[in-house]
TrEMBL record:
Coiled coil: none annotated. Pfam families: ADH_N, ADH_zinc_N. It comes from Raineyella antarctica. The keyword DNA-binding does not apply. This is (R,R)-butanediol dehydrogenase / meso-butanediol dehydrogenase / diacetyl reductase.
Length: 358
């Protein structure tokens, strides 16, 4: 089969590799669509980061570069390993792409398995990936979805689950005023989750195209251009001088972090979901004097079922966030390069490893 594999920084190749063996307790999946994630771009530009470098195998997967990329994917069950009897061949599924030690509690009550020691990700740390035509995944990490949910939209459930977990961590609830920093993929999807929960959502974003998109999709009530207005003052004006109840940082940009902190009300929550690869500075005087809570969130933990329910119920429409569909051969030129150099034109670019659906 064909797969996009990461060798080193700036070196991703389309290789012919053997199809994966479906072992006991695993589910064989024909990948339908896979999204290109910001973390994939970080690997390409700055890596290896999550990818184990050549000669330094990941402690759980035992693999090192080259590894197949892709962790935001949907597909169709193609085969069932011994002992898997609660799924059917032909069923639509998405994957929670974790690689976790077997002794970690990943049961329905766990709230911290995503923080366990030496955790890795399918599509970054080994065990195949969604930028290959097929993958085999442990049953625990395979989530069925209704077959009437289009598979291209289903590929966005993984990043939507990132947003869902961030909103959970923020404590935002119906009736709250929440400011989202950035209208890229995670910022936009976070706004969508917030709207589905009944919050009033404001977004600050430099790109005119991205500002218009969150307005057009209905996930934002207010959109600000920070070069034209004082965002914190606008938030206070809209909240009767109070400020935002919560703010979500989804850019890893220092000016955005500063703006969000300024816009928060006393005892508000600053939620950071962006992956910062450089140190940030924070005005601790404001944190102390306003008793701000600063929280982080990474990935997701037992949130895929709830996220899937949001999509299946129609509370969130994922179709508007798909801005491109390509095949493996166009991965770099029309995928990575577009997202690196023209990211304001795209939210989520999906890849069909087999070429079906293009």
């Amino acid at each position: 089969m064909r797969a996009a594999r990461f060798y080193d920084r700036g070196d991703i190749r389309i290789d012919e590799i053997p199809e994966p063996e479906v072992k006991p307790g695993e589910v064989g999946i024909d990948v339908a669509w896979c999204g290109i994630c910001g973390s994939d771009l970080h690997e390409y530009l700055e890596g290896p980061l999550f990818v184990p470098p050549a000669g330094h195998p990941h402690p759980i997967s035992g693999e090192s570069a080259p590894v197949t990329l892709g962790h935001e994917f949907s597909g169709v069950v193609s085969s069932l390993g011994e002992g898997v009897d609660d799924l059917q061949v032909g069923q639509h599924v998405v994957v929670e792409p974790y690689i976790i030690h077997d002794d970690v509690d990943t049961g329905p009550e766990s709230r911290d398995y995503h923080l366990s020691r030496e955790l890795g990700f399918i599509g970054l740390s080994g065990c195949g990936g969604g930028l290959g035509e097929k993958v085999s995944v442990k049953r625990r990490w395979v989530h069925p979805i209704r077959n009437d949910v289009p598979l291209d939209e289903a590929a966005l459930i993984e990043p939507l689950s990132v947003a869902y977990h961030a909103v959970d961590r923020s404590g935002a609830k119906a009736g709250d005023f929440v400011l989202v920093g950035g209208a890229g993929p995670i910022g936009s999807l976070t706004a969508a989750v917030l709207k589905a929960r009944g919050a009033t959502v404001a977004v600050t974003e430099l790109s005119e195209l991205r500002r218009q998109r969150v307005l057009d999709t209905g996930v934002a009530d207010h959109v600000f251009d920070p070069t034209k207005v004082d965002v914190a003052e606008e938030v206070r004006r809209l909240t009767g001088g109070r400020g935002a109840d919560a703010a979500v940082e989804a850019t890893s940009a220092q000016p955005v972090l500063d703006t969000l902190l300024n816009a928060l009300r006393p005892q508000g929550v600053l939620q950071v979901v962006a992956i910062w690869t450089k140190r940030a500075s924070i005005d601790l005087f404001q944190v102390v004097m306003k008793e701000i809570e600063v929280r982080g969130s990474i990935a997701y933990v037992n949130t895929h079922p709830s996220t899937i329910q949001l999509v299946e119920s129609g509370a969130i429409d994922l179709k508007p966030f798909i801005t491109g569909r390509i095949g493996l051969d166009d991965l770099i030129d029309k995928g990575f390069e577009t997202l690196i150099h023209h990211n304001e034109t795209a939210v989520k670019i999906l890849v069909s490893p087999s070429g079906e659906g293009l």
